[in-house]
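G., before I forget:
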Amino acid sequence: MDQSALLAVLLTIVTASTPLLLAALGELVTERAGVLNLGVEGMMVMGAVAGFAVALMTGSPYLGIVASALAGALLAVPFGVLTLNLVANQVATGLALTLLGLGLSGLIGERFVGQPGVRLQKLAIPGLSDIPFVGPILFGQDVLVYLSIALAVLVSWVVFRSRAGLILRAVGDNHASAHALGYSVIRVRWAAVLFGGAMAGLGGGYLSLAYTPQWIENMTAGRGWIALALVVFSSWLPSRLVIGAYLFGAVTILGFFVQGLGVGVPAQLLSSLPYIVTIAALVVISTRRGRARADTPACLGQPFVPDR
Amino acid sequence: MRIELEKRPERSKVMAWASPIIAVLATVVTGGLIFAAIGKPPLQALWIFFLEPFSSLWSIEELVVKATPLILIGVGLSVAYRANVWNIGAEGQFTIGALMGGMVPVFFNTWQSPLTLVLMLVLGILGGMIWALIPALLKIKAGANEILVSLMLVYVAQLLLDWLVRGPWRDPKGYNFPKTVGFEDWQVMPVFGGGRLNLGILLAIVAAIALSILMRRTMKGFEVRVLGEAPRAGRFAGFSSDRMTLFVFLLSGGLAGLAGIVEVASTVGQLQPNISPGYGFTAIIVAFLGRLDPIGVVVAALMLAVSYLGGEAAQVALGISDKAARVFQGVLLFWVLACDTLILYRLRIVRGAPAAEGV
């Protein structure tokens, strides 16, 4: 493989990994607060349709990005009301959110099917992006790629180095103690749920603004679920999440690359690769059971009712 | 002023009955608001969506046909969820069931005997079980999350079906359409009275009654409830949660597989890339709306079938997108879960300044 082909593959890996990283980072924070939101797929697909629609109507992909984050956070609101205020089952409510998001985005997006979208332009950093080979990969990306990396660093710092992160983890690991210490468990969880929604929305927006700038029904194609798996895979550590998302993007793209070489493998087998790899990764990470257990936020999925 | 939750001393029997009804009414109201928002006459749209499906014998028959797969899948899921085991990949098990059962007419196209149908149904159940066995075993042996594994397998199953009907299993005389040979005579479900009503609904009712008895009258049903509600107590009683995971996955997977082969051997009539309008996912809503009770699931399945039929009718009459049905299904599940809170809690309006700490 010559250098330009390799460069092209590496660049596509970045585009394939970014939506996963964005959505998974949000879910990581949500789960750190002890809330399991299985609605990532639904929030992502709503972000995708909202981002596409707003970018198309205003002509600005940046407004599209804002809209996708808002749409994701907005869809997280009913989830928050049900699971946090009404202590409904988190698994079932998350599923409801996914079903609602898929339906609603289909309804809203119907008139956008087949329309060419607005593409998010690359934002080359002058000078640095001219470095041969590494320049375009590291410094020739669009704003969401930079943002995803910056947010990964920021989330890592906030979760492990700041007071806010300490409270977040306390709420996720032992909500009764956090409550006794005077922190509002529900309020912290609300913030985490809304952040998770906005990030999932951004991930979806990346799909319809940068990955393939168009609207296709169900265009997230299970990426929300893969993001959920990545959080487990990362043991709830942002640094490992970055590695996981990129490994995952690489596997997906290599599948397509192999197909491009004309190897006689059915297209459907290559398309199913991401799902099979996810299962394999879940099995590998879960087998080292002791460690995975220890990393899991202890109150994950448990409802909390304050006893004043 | 704010609203606070107050735990009831015991489950409210009244609310256990009333909550699904309140949820349905709230969904209808929400539906009206959605129709108004997209510029359709709300009352007329609601009438077409929710009541017209009951207006003729033909549509009631169609309602039962649509409810059949929902009942078959929903009753299995209701038992699994009772055990706190989250099989959400029924859509995939449905697909593999259809595919395994469909092998009979694909490979032995001319074999016609009552046994043909029996073998198809048995293979359908086996197919669903095999697909459900994967998340169950990975959960038991490796501790892999069953929600994610079962869901991932839905995509894999659909791609597998897609490949087979476009490639090796394609009907050579089918003008290159992505479908297998059509199923005929003993390869399809017997119908009643010349309409579309078929044997499938009887199988579904039998499954619902059998599982209702299992849950209410047998030790196994007791075990499901104990392990679901109090896993620690269950372990002290000597129940194995691993065996339970395996049991409910095989049960719900087998029933989803049966639903799959029944569907392709009746409504669809062949294997093709698209064999289900999301029955496996709608059945999750059915299970919850039916209060995770097999008989309740039958009622809930009929109600969800209305949303499919009403969706089609509203599309024809008012040009409302068929996607609206999916939205209603999602909204309905939200309301069901919200109203379920009322069974265990009382809402109390607290006046005055909020306490320093709280909601």
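Residues 2-350 of chain B form a domain with the ABC transporter involved in vitamin B12 uptake, BtuC fold (CATH 1.10.3470). The beta strands of chain B are 2-7, 345-350.

More on Monday.
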